[in-house]
Design goal:
Elements (H helix, E strand, L loop, with lengths): L12 H26 L4 E4 L2 E4 L17 E5 L4 E4 L5 H12 L6 E5 L5 H4 L11 E5 L2 H20 L1 H4 L9 E3 L2 E5 L4 E6 L9 E5 L4 E9 L10 H12 L5 E6 L11 H19 L4 H7 L11 H16 L3
């Protein structure tokens, strides 16, 4: 060793303790990060209108059924909820988020249609004195599917997240149009003819000119057909006549310009109908149609592979009897 060289030194005791402390904190930091990621956020998109954006995914054990948009409208004396998510756990998280922005009573829980990712959170809002509102065909649709909806939800999200989940039937039905008042804030509900389903309901907030369409409007997430493709394509031009500053989709961004928001969906449905009709005319089978129809739309939608085949099947089954 030369006169000027220094012996090698390792980390000091202080450095060692600091490192040990950081290692001990890692699990807490990871848990905090996960909590931040899973926090049920709602965003005010217009005065008194809050929207939670669901994930673009199938229902699974990670999202617990949080795959659709849920909304809250607050008036001067009360609030209304529009759709509640796909499990009791999701509905409770939504209710907790609402309570952070208002203490007004929730007078109405409105379901835009029957699908489980929109209605299985209803149970979290029981006991609040709210009326549950839906299309006049909603009770029959839910009754026919209740067992399968609940079974599938339990299997997909697990027993723990499923706990408390149940079907809650509407107590107030809409046969044509219905106005609900939240205190200087009327909401106009309209029962629509068979389209996405046979029990689609839209809501219009006059105060902010906001149009809530449920699953009559999809964006990013591929549309799903559980009603009539003919009826849906016929309804879209009628929906576009509604003057509105913004639209809230059942799946998609928290807010969209209206009526431009619905044009991609219209194009997709027109493509499916046109190509299915051509396949039927040419004597092609359902299997051939499922393999080929709509493939030009693949890059335009999330969950294309999961839903396009079912959409083609539903359209083929309907259109082969034209």
């Amino acid at each position: 060793m030369t006169q000027n060289s220094q012996p090698p030194t390792g980390p000091s005791r202080k450095d060692f303790l600091r490192g040990a402390a950081l290692i001990a904190l890692l699990p807490l930091l990871r848990r905090a990060a996960r909590a931040e990621e899973t926090q049920f956020g709602i965003t005010e998109v217009a005065p008194g209108i809050y929207v939670h954006v669901g994930k673009y995914a199938l229902v699974n054990g990670e999202n617990h059924g949080d795959i659709s948009n849920a909304c809250c409208v607050i008036g001067s004396s009360a609030a209304a909820v529009i759709d509640t998510g796909g499990s009791y756990e999701v509905g409770k998280a939504f209710l907790d988020a609402i309570r952070k922005v208002t203490d007004k009573p929730i007078r109405y829980v409105i379901n835009t249609h029957m699908h489980p990712d929109h209605v299985l959170g209803n149970a979290a809002f029981e006991g609040l004195g709210a009326e549950f509102v839906g299309h006049h065909k909603l009770p029959a649709a839910l009754a026919a599917r209740a067992e399968s909806y609940l079974r599938n939800a339990r299997e997909r999200i697990g027993d723990k997240a499923f706990a408390g989940t149940k079907i809650v039937m509407p107590t107030k039905l809409v046969t044509d149009t219905l106005e609900l008042d939240l205190g200087s804030r009327p909401l106009t509900l309209a029962a629509r003819p068979t389209a996405h389903t046979d029990n689609d309901l839209t809501i219009f907030d006059t105060a902010t000119e906001t149009f809530f369409l449920g699953d009559l409007l999809f964006s990013v997430h591929i549309p799903t057909l559980d009603g009539s493709i003919v009826g849906w394509l016929k309804l879209i031009p009628e929906l576009m006549k509604q003057r509105a500053k913004r639209a809230i989709p059942g799946h998609g961004p928290k807010s969209m310009p209206w009526p431009d928001a619905i044009l991609p969906e219209q194009h997709y449905l027109e493509t499916i109908a046109r190509e299915v009709r051509a396949m039927i005319k040419d004597g092609k089978t359902l299997e051939e149609a499922v393999a080929k129809v709509g493939q030009s739309e693949r890059g335009n939608w999330k969950l294309f592979d999961e839903h396009n085949g079912m959409n083609v099947t539903a359209a083929f089954t309907e259109l082969e009897w034209e």
